[in-house]
Design a protein that fits this description.
Blueprint (H helix, E strand, L loop, with lengths): L15 H32 L9 H24 L2 H14 L17 E6 L3 E7 L5 H4 L3 H7 L7 E8 L5 E8 H6 L3 E2 L11 E5 L2 E4 L8 E5 L5 H16 L8 E4 L12 E2 L8 H28 L13 E5 L2 H7 L13 H14 L5 E7 L2 H7 L2 H6 L2 E5 L3 H4 L5 H4 L11 E6 L8 E4 L2 E2 L3 H12 L3 H29 L3 H16 L1
Helix pairs in contact: 1-2, 7-15, 8-10, 15-16, 16-17
The structure holds adenosine-5'-triphosphate and magnesium ion.
């Protein structure tokens, strides 16, 4: 029932414990008063010399025992109180007790806010509804909520919020941020890298699901040495390479315009010594042709089965185009095509990217772009490509850079901290990670570039040059795939995904 808010009513907004204790104290006081009255009356009777015995000990004992029981009740109430009720009382007191600052700017007699707390997978959801308050005040309580959580919940803070579309209530999500801040996957060998057909694991419990993501291209931003390339290698490239190729022309194309560490790996494309990037454009064009062909095959499957089928249901494996340092590569294309090479220009490059980014996902072809500066990177991206980047990551984030990747409203729950390499804010529109969250990307305790070289050789079947390594990696990858895919099979919701993964394992073994 809704009731009127009162400014000087601190006790009213307390949890039941102090109220029960106060009731116990009152009962104890009654016991004391009864005893005092008994003593006073006895002394008066005595002084008059009357032969009359005054004995209130029954009533005194009654009040004393009752107060003892009430104190016991307060202890039981406090210890047995559920976490949900505990949090509810704290939040309600913060919002209603005027000594906490009255964040909703309520006036005497106005309707009090209603607070509902429910458990979520990682923490709690707090729903706040207040008819009398301004909706802007109800939707800017992150700091108040995070600050008022103490004792058992001191490590909890607001990590996300969502507003009711009709502007009635706001849901705040709180989680133990201290525990999750330090969680990180550490892979000591290639075998530890989890493999799944559609899931890209950042941590054991955090993954991006390609089968659910709406806009599946990825933009990875962050200053120099912030961990972008390592993250893409550990989360996307190594697992996809471990899956092996499919029978539909899948490929992993890596472009390193800086000709840095990545370019030392086989099959990685870098600009020619004369600065030409025409061969890179040709590789991207070929990637796009394969995409078109894969889509055609999927359409045939759809026709023959009379229903929509997804790339991962027909035996396809992810095909990836990774452009490291996107701004550098863009700068290398001629702004205008020359007469002798009419299809070698920046416009051709951008046109291909647009097609891959917007139409690739349905054929299992994914684009990953890394940029050193979010502002320059997103500025240089066509809006169609930018919008197709549903997977967004910002390494060693700052609020200024983050504004180029997310809306101010989505960022309102994020706080800047001291970050190290591999620390990032990320989101994906896969229905699981839509809200921006902080995460530590996996730490690799083995040579990532060596592992990448081995897997690329294995992937493209370089038997002549890398025969020995191929054998070693193949064994390692196979054993890892067996474990990972068993787990994937167990957890995969659809049988088709599970089957595909088992299929992937078989192919990995035969490769
Ligand atoms: N997840 C991580 N955990 C711990 N350290 C990491 C992590 N990722 C990267 N590093 C460290 O940061 C260094 C830089 O990483 P990386 O080369 O991936 O950054 P980058 O953003 O791609 O840099 P550049 O702009 O130079 O290409 C690595 O050599 C590694 O030591
Ligand atoms: Mg890099």
């Amino acid at each position: 029932m809704m009731s009127g808010w009162r400014r000087d009513a601190s006790l009213r907004y307390c949890s039941p414990t102090p109220k029960i204790i106060l009731f116990g104290v009152v009962l104890l006081l009654f016991a004391g008063i009864t005893k005092a009255i008994e003593l006073l009356a006895s002394s008066i009777v005595c002084s008059f010399g009357w032969d009359y015995e005054i004995n209130f000990s029954g009533i005194t004992t009654f009040f004393a025992v009752l107060s003892g029981l009430v104190f016991l009740m307060s202890i039981i109430e406090k210890t047995c109180r559920s976490a949900r009720r505990d949090i509810k009382y704290v939040i309600r007191r913060t919002l209603c007790d005027s000594s906490y600052g009255n964040p909703l700017h309520l006036k005497d007699g106005e309707i009090e806010p209603s607070v509902e707390v429910s458990k979520t997978e990682k923490g709690f959801k707090i729903r706040i509804d207040c008819i009398s308050a301004n909706f802007d005040d109800v939707s800017s309580l992150e700091t108040f909520i995070s600050c008022c959580l103490r004792n058992k919940y001191a490590d909890y803070a607001v990590v996300a919020k969502d507003e009711d579309l009709s502007g009635r209530y706001v849901n705040y999500y709180i989680e133990n941020v201290v525990i999750s801040y330090y969680q990180q996957s550490v892979y000591s060998s290639l075998a530890d890298i989890p493999v799944h057909l559609t899931k890209r694991y950042i941590r054991n419990d955090v993954y991006i699901d390609y089968s659910r993501v709406l806009n599946s291209s990825a933009i990875v931003a962050g200053r120099s040495r912030s961990g972008k390339t390592t993250a893409i290698i550990s989360v996307f490239l190594l697992p996809i390479l471990k899956l092996g190729r499919d029978d539909f022309g899948s490929r992993v194309i890596i472009v390193d315009p800086k000709s840095a560490e990545l370019s030392l790996c086989p099959h990685v494309l870098s600009p020619a010594p004369d600065g030409s990037v025409e061969h890179i454009l040709n590789a991207i064009r070929e990637f796009n042709l394969v995409r078109v062909e894969r889509q055609r095959k999927i359409n045939e499957f759809c026709k023959s089965q009379g229903k929509a089928v997804k790339w991962f249901e027909v035996g396809m494996k992810p095909s990836v185009l990774f452009l490291d340092e996107f701004v550098s590569i863009s700068d290398m294309f001629p702004k205008k095509a020359s007469k002798d090479r009419p299809d070698y220009s920046l416009a051709d490059f951008q046109g291909l990217l647009r097609q891959i980014a917007t139409q690739g996902a349905s054929a299992g072809c994914f684009l990953i772009i890394s940029v050193a500066e979010a502002s320059v990177g997103t500025g240089g991206l066509e809006s169609a490509v930018n919008n197709a980047c549903g997977i967004r990551m910002l390494f060693k984030p700052s609020m200024d850079e983050a504004r180029y990747l997310w809306s101010s409203e989505a960022l309102s729950v994020m706080r800047e901290r001291q970050y190290s390499a591999g620390d990032a804010w990320f989101s994906a529109d896969d229905g699981i990670n839509n809200k921006i969250s902080f995460i530590k990307f996996p730490r690799l305790e083995f040579g990532e570039y060596g592992a990448l070289s081995k897997l690329l050789s294995l992937y493209y079947d370089d038997t002549d040059k890398h025969g020995v390594e191929r054998e070693a990696t193949s064994t390692e990858a196979r054993s890892s795939e067996a474990t990972s895919c068993e787990a994937a099979t167990r957890e995969a919701s659809g049988a088709s995904v599970a089957n595909e993964c088992v299929g992937a394992d078989c192919e990995g073994a035969s490769a």
